[in-house]
Amino acid sequence: MNIFPAVDILGGKCVQLVQGKRESATAYGDPFACATRWLDLGATALHVVNLDGAFGTASKNAGLIKDLIKKTGVEIELGGGIRSVDDARNWLETGVDRVIISTLATRDPGCIRTLSREFGKERVMPGVDAKGGQIAVHGWQETAGDYIGWAKRFEELGAGSLLYTNVDVEGLQQGIRIDPVKQLIDAVTIPVVVAGGVSARSDVAALKAAGAAGAVLGSALYSGKIKLKDALEECR
């Protein structure tokens, strides 16, 4: 199982949100400095989110993110504001390993097949953001049906992996809810990376035991509630 420290970018700064709410942002400084910190501590991959893109300004932070990709040279999965096949294509051509497509995947599921055929399925990662068992879209403000049903459909269309985020616990630093994770992993055959609530070494252990391919560390990592060293050791 791999560990993905989150580098969420809003207004040119690395931030962490609670429940995806912009007004809850806590800033942690320069994104490249944050990324370098986690890589120096042993991380080998990053989970990068263009929050300005998610809030409607897709082009914002593009230059900064491209520099991050080039300077770190590590495995990067990228999401936030990818609202069209062209958006996804542009990011894939900059060198990110995977694009995370969420609302776009539910609005235009065929985009998964298009991108998988063009770039390879391993580079296409639909986001399964679940809220009360329903897939959450449009900045987690709306729901659009059973998250398991959507996950199966994404796999059938050619997704190479899935990013599962439990919106109900995201950013709260109160631990994961393992049952919906297990249900999703059991329902599909492709790798599932899990975000939302990972706040202790025991959460990482539970995800590993459930068969998760990776875990995203966000708010709890930045606040110091979970240590990257402990998470990496648990994965080994």
UniProtKB/TrEMBL annotation:
A GO biological-process term: L-histidine biosynthetic process
Locations listed in the record: Cytoplasm
Keywords per UniProt: Amino-acid biosynthesis, Cytoplasm, Histidine biosynthesis, Isomerase
Record has Cytoplasm as a keyword: yes
Pathway connected to this protein: Amino-acid biosynthesis; L-histidine biosynthesis; L-histidine from 5-phospho-alpha-D-ribose 1-diphosphate: step 4/9
EC number: 5.3.1.16
Family per record: Belongs to the HisA/HisF family.
Protein name: 1-(5-phosphoribosyl)-5-[(5-phosphoribosylamino)methylideneamino] imidazole-4-carboxamide isomerase
UniProt organism field: Methanoregula formicica (strain DSM 22288 / NBRC 105244 / SMSP)
